[in-house]
Task: structure prediction
Amino acid sequence: MSSEATASVPFLKVPREESLVTGGKTFADVDQDISIHLERFPTWRWWMCFVAALSAFGLGAVLVGIMFARGLGVLGLNQPNGWGVFIVNFVFWVGIGHAGTLISAILFLFRQKWRTGINRSAEAMTIFAVMTALIFPVIHTGRPWYAIFWLIPYPNQRELWVNFRSPLLWDVFAVGTYFTISLVFWYVGMIPDLATVRDRAKNKIRKFIYTILSLGWRGSNKAWSHYEIAYMVFAGLSTPLVLSVHSVVSFDFAVANLPGWHTTIFPPYFVAGAIFSGFAMVVTLLVIAREMFGLKNYITLAHLEKMNKIIMATGMMVGYAYACEFFIAWYSGNTFERYAFVNRAFGPYWWAYWIMASCNVLIPQIYWFKKARTSIPIMFVVSLFVNIGMWFERFVITVTSLHRDFLPSSWAYYVPTWFDWGITLGSFGWFMIWFLLFCRILPVIAMAEIKGVMKPAGTHGHHPEPTRHQEVYAHGTK
Amino acid sequence: MEQNNPTPGNGLKPPELSGVIGFFDAPDLLISATRKAREAKYRDFDAYTPYPVHGLEAAQGIKRSPIPYVTFLAGITGCAAAFALQYWTSAVDWPLNVGGKPFNSWPAFVPVMFELTILFGGLSTFAALLFFCRLPNARKRNFDPRLTSDRFALMIEAPLHGEDPEEAEEILKAGGFQKFSEEEAKGFLKSVGAKEVRTVYAEGWF
Result:
């Protein structure tokens, strides 16, 4: 397992995995570095971010209030553009969430140990992103206090049931299940860490709160054995779930008989795009968080580089989908389909299409270079571009397909009003409020998981669990 | 330590002995100690670790958790319930012609069936986890604050309180297990390398 072992097996040059935690940390250091932010007063930088988020949310809330009072006419919607920025935001935010589940569930099943540094914050992002997404379809109804009842099948006075043949209803079940299961999965993963925070607490109120939250967890091995199986089951359930959620979201479009929407490539295309945008958001948030909370030894450049590789790979999948759509439009021989796509790239919304294509396909190509993948400023800028590009992807899909109907007499250009933009800004504020509170109240890194994959300083000859590569060495040198 | 005070009790009732706990600094020491406890034929013992230590389950002789069976059954139930709900509302209670599709248009019911399979499966997995771990129990206190940080422990448990001592002894004998004695357990833990050994008394529900 040492370097001599590698030297003695020349044909077995498996690269040694880089350490997942740097800085020679002990287990106690891990708890200290991660829990300290929960145990002291927030810094002025945190307060500045929090006030900015609250103001953005406040603006959005006021605009939503005015919209409820005056009606949806304050938005840019018209005929035939019945869907606009609200639906774009809904798809955008649901998509953001997907990276969290991919990291927590799919990378877990593939035994990718580097996920332990980032899974907690990525899962938090999932939950807050879904909470943000859910606002939009509900306020889009204009009368949300009724909408809640229209969405759920329950025996009502009209004796009518919801229409189970509608993708919009599938969405209610898909996103609702996604939110519930992600929340439970996240919470289960947090129980041991909450117990750590409880046991560190000196303050009585904090001790009480974390005693309740940690449910009385003690780390008994009998409990761990159930816990690990349950965690694996959650990962197994979440994996098909996350793939289904954006597939169902794409059905909202694909089931409609509208050129530009009615394509079978939508489910995989949407899922790849969701993971793409979600990873970009994770990079944006973690680059800031590791700086602000001093977590550079836990969220290392190696973690960020791996995420950037995934961004590039999924970016190219999305690029393939763009090309494939055009090919099928031409190959189908359907005039309406062909027109929809030519119009998408060269019609009145050409600017939106090319913003999307350059941000999502062109810019991530810089990640072919390791220098770019490991440069904090470059990855921060690229992740912002990807977020913008993916927002425009949904804008392009929604608006360019709607704005030129089958009848040229009903064609209309859609321009969002400042209500649309203000409420969109408010949704970012809402998301950031939750994320900032999360950073202050809950451990942002899964301490118990980190301990399982690190080799603590000061222990000699003890390997918590040999990595796969180390096992190869051990086997090869026998 | 305010919890697990060596002389607790409110003066009315004598404190009830829960067991003897020994602390270790590294997981590999704990694994070998746990294996020895099993070989020494203790019936009630458990290890405490800040993170799941691999190899400890085998050392302790823990059977695989039955949680996946619960998930499977609940998932099947969710799937069936979703179909029943959709069939009954769409084809029986108020059959509504939507786009000329059959009332029982089952392919359209698949997404909701899938989602409820996952929802029921996931929620029942959580419930099963809490049930098997005997949680939530906020009155459970940790034996040592560092047990969720960087310490490892093995506890030899006294027979459950409420158990008739003579009957308990019979059961232990029948299973070929060792009888619990505080002094003997302390000696055992010291012999397997525990750095510190403490007696634990019952508190609350324990």
Q: What stands out?
A: The mean pLDDT of chain B is 86. Residues 21 and 155 of chain B are 4 Å apart (CA to CA). The first helix of chain B runs from residue 27 to 39.
